[in-house]
Automatic annotation (TrEMBL):
Coiled coil: none
GO cellular component terms, A-Z: endomembrane system; membrane
Gene: pssA
Topology of this chain in the membrane: Multi-pass membrane protein
Name under which the protein is recorded: CDP-diacylglycerol--serine O-phosphatidyltransferase
Gene3D superfamilies, sorted: 1.20.120.1760
Keywords from the named record: Lipid biosynthesis, Lipid metabolism, Membrane, Phospholipid biosynthesis, Phospholipid metabolism, Transferase, Transmembrane, Transmembrane helix
Cellular localization per UniProt: Endomembrane system
Catalytic activity, reaction form: a CDP-1,2-diacyl-sn-glycerol + L-serine = a 1,2-diacyl-sn-glycero-3-phospho-L-serine + CMP + H(+)
InterPro entries xref list: CDP-alcohol_PTase-I (IPR050324), CDP-diaglyc--ser_O-PTrfase (IPR004533), CDP-OH_P_trans (IPR000462), CDP-OH_PTrfase_TM_dom (IPR043130), CDP_ALCOHOL_P_TRANSF_CS (IPR048254)
PANTHER family: CDP-DIACYLGLYCEROL--GLYCEROL-3-PHOSPHATE 3-PHOSPHATIDYLTRANSFERASE-RELATED, CDP-DIACYLGLYCEROL--SERINE O-PHOSPHATIDYLTRANSFERASE
Leader peptide range in chain numbering: none
GO biological process: phospholipid biosynthetic process
């Protein structure tokens, strides 16, 4: 029974960190760097819980639903609040509320689709909400260096990517051997310690691979569409070449 509960403990830790991230952006606290770090550590928990469940053969519908509910808070609500607290309060209230709310709404829609629609083997359909939330939370740390219009556009683009049909590689299938599960708590403790000691620098460093992952899906989607366009152009050129001799011979 205890073994079966271990994956859920990581999921609950993910949810706990998401709630702490929200608390850390309240005006009385105002620690966006630490809040972003909580989202990053929650990503680690989210990546670990499924792998631990598979290693212990403890997968369940309960765990799946709990994971989705936790993700909405940790990677939907928390990152949106972080961005709102550091950047969007300068906007018109209606615009700020709509853009802020749109992100967790799209995240919830993406998770609902993930739970009921079977995806492609090895791929996610749409940008996974942990990656989108990680990008938004860490992007907020650059609010002094990036124009407000860019932050708004980035939030909207990330929201759209989550509910898009763009394929993203699924690294969750990379499992953890059962005899190596003891390493997981050590990794978690080390990452948490680094996150608390260097929240500002570590969050900004992690921003880079997360953005590259988001852009990778866009690039692959464009690459898949380009061959079709090239084929169409070739066919059009062939038809034109065949039509020209006919006109001359007439």
């Amino acid at each position: 029974m205890i073994t079966k509960s271990i994956p859920s403990l990581f999921t609950v830790a993910n949810l706990f960190l998401g709630i702490i991230a929200v608390i850390l952006v309240f005006p009385d606290n105002a620690k966006p760097e630490l809040a972003a770090m909580m989202v990053i550590i929650a990503m680690l928990m989210d990546g670990v819980d499924g792998r631990v469940a598979r290693a212990l053969n403890a997968q369940s519908e309960f765990g799946k639903e709990l994971d989705s509910l936790s993700d909405v808070i940790s990677f939907g609500v928390a990152p949106a609040f972080i961005m709102y607290s550091v950047a969007f309060q300068e906007l018109n209230s209606a615009a700020a509320w709509i853009i802020t709310a749109l992100f967790p709404i799209c995240g919830a829609l993406r998770l609902a689709r993930f739970n009921v629609v079977s995806g492609m083997p090895g791929y996610f359909i749409g940008l996974p909400i942990p990656a989108a939330g990680g990008v938004l939370a860490t992007l907020a740390l650059f609010h002094k260096d990036i124009a407000l219009s860019v932050l708004m556009a980035s939030t909207l683009v990330l929201s759209c990517l989550m509910v898009s049909t763009i394929r993203y590689p699924n690294f969750k299938k990379l499992g953890i051997p059962k005899n190596a599960i003891w390493v997981v708590p050590i990794i978690v403790v080390v990452v948490v310690a680094l996150g608390i000691l260097f929240p500002h620098h570590l969050s900004k460093i992690i921003f880079v691979p997360l953005v590259l992952y988001a852009l990778y899906g866009l690039k692959k989607n464009v690459d898949r569409r380009l061959p079709n366009r090239k084929r169409k152009r070739r066919l059009e050129n062939q038809l034109q070449e065949e039509a020209v001799p006919g006109e001359h011979s007439a």
